[in-house]
């Protein structure tokens, strides 16, 4: 957490309005959430922490942009998903999630009117009420002026945290009413270590991603996600092709054994992720085989993989057993079974089933 913010918490002198300002992917939104948690869950009460984990604390409120005419509570469900899945995401990620490509998203007067109601209520569990306003750049002029009036007469025991990336798009009078805390881009080393610890990737991959991310953790996570998705495909295609070839050429078994030995040295999380990927692909193939309209995009395109021919072999006779065998392999790996034996056994069973 930013040292300036830590000092505010230590001194217990928290301004009524803060502006966490920083470039995309700098973690200012995550910091705002953690800052709110430190204030509202002072004694690390388990019940309070659980509510924060679900992003459902009664004294924590959010304002965020969405299309005019939208219903706040409907978007709040998606907002909680966004904070869980993409806490370092930017406005374009949010627009993509709510599928608002052709409608402009702003913080409209209805949200500010609702904010006025909130600040007039008593807090439920804590001494304070905290409002996190994400992307103040998207405030309409009316909303900005109305928010300014609130800040001119700050409500007692209410903390407003603005979280944004460009203070040039905010009214100067509004900016003058908040305490600005500036965030910098993440360092190369921070992103490198974060990726290694969080996702168990090797240092060569973490160095590559950190160098490409330009200090933007959101960008780093997207690069990692693209690499991992391709990596899953790259391993799946030769493996499934070898299973089909094994029916005609017994010596292909050596390649399957080699691949099982290779997987044995992966980190456990990576092993499980690959097995979950297998399960998803077989289920998608089964669905596509019976109603191709339900699968809009072909999941596997690597190395001219013939998705249509593959789907023919996945049907009601084998999908249940394939799913059961993959789930059993995941269970065995979680319980520290010998991975190369587990995966070789799984490969041979799927070979018989298809």
Automatic annotation (TrEMBL):
Transmembrane segments: none
Taxonomic superkingdom: Bacteria
Pfam family, one: DNA_pol3_delta2
Residues forming coiled coils: none
Gene it is expressed from: holB
A GO BP entry: DNA-templated DNA replication
Lineage start: Bacteria, Pseudomonadati, Bacteroidota, Flavobacteriia, Flavobacteriales
Protein known as: Putative DNA polymerase III delta' subunit
């Amino acid at each position: 957490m930013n040292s300036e913010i830590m000092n505010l918490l230590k001194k217990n002198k928290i301004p009524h309005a803060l502006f966490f300002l920083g470039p995309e992917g700098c973690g200012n939104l995550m910091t705002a959430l953690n800052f709110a948690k430190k204030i509202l869950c002072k004694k690390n009460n388990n019940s309070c922490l659980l509510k924060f984990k679900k992003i459902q604390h009664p004294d924590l409120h959010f304002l965020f942009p969405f299309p005019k005419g939208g219903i706040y509570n409907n978007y709040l469900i998606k907002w909680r998903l966004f904070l869980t899945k993409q806490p370092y995401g930017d406005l374009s990620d949010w627009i993509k999630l709510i599928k608002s490509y052709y409608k402009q998203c702003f913080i409209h007067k209805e949200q500010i009117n609702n904010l006025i109601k909130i600040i007039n209520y008593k807090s439920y569990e804590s001494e304070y009420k905290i409002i996190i306003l994400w992307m103040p750049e998207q405030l309409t002029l009316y909303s900005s002026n109305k928010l300014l009036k609130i800040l001119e007469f700050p409500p007692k025991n209410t903390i407003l945290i603005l979280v944004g990336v460009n203070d040039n798009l905010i009214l100067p009078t509004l900016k003058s009413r908040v305490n600005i805390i500036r965030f910098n881009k993440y360092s190369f080393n921070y992103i490198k270590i974060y990726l290694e610890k969080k996702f168990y990737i090797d240092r060569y991959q973490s160095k590559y991603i950190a160098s490409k991310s330009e200090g933007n953790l959101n960008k780093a996570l997207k690069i990692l996600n693209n690499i991992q998705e391709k990596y899953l495909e790259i391993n799946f295609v030769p493996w499934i092709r070898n299973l089909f070839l094994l029916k005609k050429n017994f010596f292909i078994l050596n390649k399957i054994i080699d691949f099982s030995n290779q997987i044995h040295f992966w980190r456990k999380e990576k092993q499980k992720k690959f097995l979950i990927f297998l399960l998803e692909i077989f289920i998608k193939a089964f669905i596509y085989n019976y109603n191709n309209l339900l699968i809009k995009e072909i999941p596997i395109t690597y190395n001219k993989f013939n998705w249509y021919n593959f789907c023919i072999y996945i049907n009601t006779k084998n999908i249940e057993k394939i799913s059961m065998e993959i789930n059993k392999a995941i269970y065995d790996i979680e319980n520290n079974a010998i991975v190369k034996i587990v995966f070789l056994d799984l490969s041979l069973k799927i070979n018989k089933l298809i």
